[in-house]
Amino acid sequence: MTSHSQAITKPLGGISPVIAVHRGSRKPLHRQIYDAYRDGITAGQLAPGQQVPSTRALSTELGISRIPILEAYSQLMAEGYFESRAGAGTFVSSSLPDQLASSTHGSAELSGSRRVSRRGDLTIWRRPWTRSSGPFSIGQLAFDHFPFTTWSTLMARLARKVNASSLNYGGAMGDKEFRKTLALYLRTSRGVHCDAGQIMVVSGSQQALDLCARVLVDPGDPVWVEEPGYGLMRHALNLAGCRLIPVPVDDQGLDVAAGIEKSPTARAAYVTPSHQYPLGATMSASRRLQLLDWAHKADAWVVEDDYDSEYRYESMPIASLQGLDRGSRVIYIGTFSKTLFPGLRIGYIVIPPDVVDRFATVRGAVDICAPHFYQGVLTDFIDEGHYARHLRKTRLIYNERRNALVNALQRAFGSRLQIMGAEAGMHVTVTLPPGVEDYEISLRAAEENLWLWPLSTTYMSKNTRQGFILGFGSTKLSEMPKAVRRLRDIMFERHKWL
User: Fold this and answer.
1) Of the candidates 16, 37, 49, 459, which lies 20 to 30 Å from 475 by C-alpha distance?
2) Yes or no: domain 146-387 corresponds to CATH 3.40.640.10
3) With 0-12 CB in 10 A as exposed, 13-18 as middle and 19+ as buried, what is 123?
């Protein structure tokens, strides 16, 4: 026997799992013995009705007093894991189910085939381009140009002002001072008609889309979505049980006439009018007015996802669709994920006044409120002019990176690739010649650390266009030509006529 630990490796007077007691452990001896037996039973090492060693035998084997063993056995009997039989000894309780081990152990063997709700059975994106950063990745920014010093100073200053009230729950709508600042910014820069009372602060645009789906539509309701369109928007609507109506997009944005022909009584339309994702079109004035007229006549809602409108390179930013709405039919969604950093997790919804309470009720049920701290930091960041300076700076940076990508693509491929959506945002879309499939090439490119999002995956129908969505936000100017040459080489491997 050692002075530090001893283990049973074979049954003595009954069946026992391996038990190790460590005298130097902070865990009391009786608890070590109790845990060893309980884990052995739930893991299936001990079956119902099997005998365990007597307290005297176990004391001898482990070289410890009977007192901690008696305590452990007493607790196990009290909880129903052990039972005592007069004249026979101590046994694992015969009332425990034989299936105990399979229900409490063996998670490594689970196949994922167990029943879940239909909502939990949505296809999960697992492809490399959905979770990686590097050349052409979507949603990645010029983090090397973020004003870290300014942001850190504002955070430190606010942290010194933390008090008891800032540690409590906030309102479902968000911090009042931040919403006042945000209302002024949206009225000035985006032409949004709103006041602070209409703005709800959320954890990014994805939560905004989810809340809109929960509040505005019921399961089974038809909803227009752009075709091709934003996949996470469709996930939010699928989770709400909506019936998605894919409406084609052309160079003027959503084809409203086609939507009316497909589903004139749809309950809502989810659109990206300032910079359609992924093709990049701007919805024309006539289409905007047509969409608003349809929504008014059909008693429908329009959800405007204005995800990256701050970055427009060949004209002034396009005014919001919400600013044209005189019937309070548009719910406007924005985010700071594209202008600051996605880890900030701050977005917002501008809600028509008559449904603000509905949104607040649902938000309180699913998420209660947004965190205080970053709202306060962002309030100061905007009020002190840092945000406007950051936008001016990054707009120039992204314009340079966009030009570098477009020029490199034209040099490498000439007219064999069509470039779309280069007028705004932080991605361009290229379409491929007939016979070239984007999915296979994207998988091959991932092996070379190029993250090409296949255009075909943004379609609901089988009649898809082949191409790539290429992000340029995080790729430096010096790296862009090399990345495009690697893309050309990969495509040439499979299609030597390109």
Assistant:
1) 459
2) yes
3) exposed
CB 225 within 8 A of CB 270: yes
* CATH assignment, 389-494: 3.90.1150.10
For 283, residues 6+ apart whose C-beta sits below 8 A from its C-beta are 252, 253, 254, 271, 273, 274, 276, 291, 321
What is the chain's alpha carbon radius of gyration, rounded to the nearest angstrom? 31
438-446 and 480-494 helices, crossing angle to 10°: 120
Closest CA relative to residue 141, chosen from 312, 391, 379, 481:
391
Cα–Cα distance measured from residue 13 to residue 324, given in angstroms and rounded to the nearest whole number: 85
Residue 41, pLDDT > 90, answer no
Quickly list H helices, 81-175.
100-104, 148-159
Q: What is the pLDDT of residues 150-178, one digit of tens each?
A: 999 999 999 999 888 888 888 999 999 99
Residue 463: both structure tokens together: 């009649």
Single-letter code of the amino acid located at 62:
L
Average pLDDT over residues 258-287: 96
3-class DSSP assignment, residue 306: coil
For the chain, give the longest Cα–Cα distance.
Answer: 93
167, burial (CB in 10 Å: exposed 0-12, middle 13-18, buried 19+): exposed
- Give me the phi and psi of 89, to 5 degrees please: 130, -160
The torsion of the CA quartet 120, 122, 123, 129, rounded to 10 degrees, works out to -90
| Selection from 408, 401, 403 nearest residue 488 by Cα | 408
Contacts of 163 (CB under 8 A, 6+ apart): none
The answer to whether 382 and 185 have CB atoms below 8 angstroms apart is yes
For the chain, which residues make up each domain, given as ranges? 5-103, 146-387, 389-494
Q: What is the pLDDT of residues 226-253, one digit of tens each?
A: 999 998 899 899 988 999 999 999 999 9
Say whether pLDDT at 112 is over 60.
no
Q: Tell me the pTM.
A: 0.79
pLDDT, position 356: 97
Tokens representing 347 are 């977005």
Average pLDDT over residues 167-195: 94
Distance CA 373, CA 429 (A): 37
Tokens, residue 218: 């019921």
Do 198 and 351 meet the contact criterion of CB atoms below 8 Å apart?
A: yes
> First vs last Cα of the chain: how many Å apart?
76
pLDDT band at 21 (very low <50, low <70, confident <90, very high): confident
From the list 173, 198, 228, the residue with the least C-alpha distance to 354 is: 198
What residue type is assigned to position 381 of the chain? F
What CATH number is given for 5-103 in this structure? 1.10.10.10
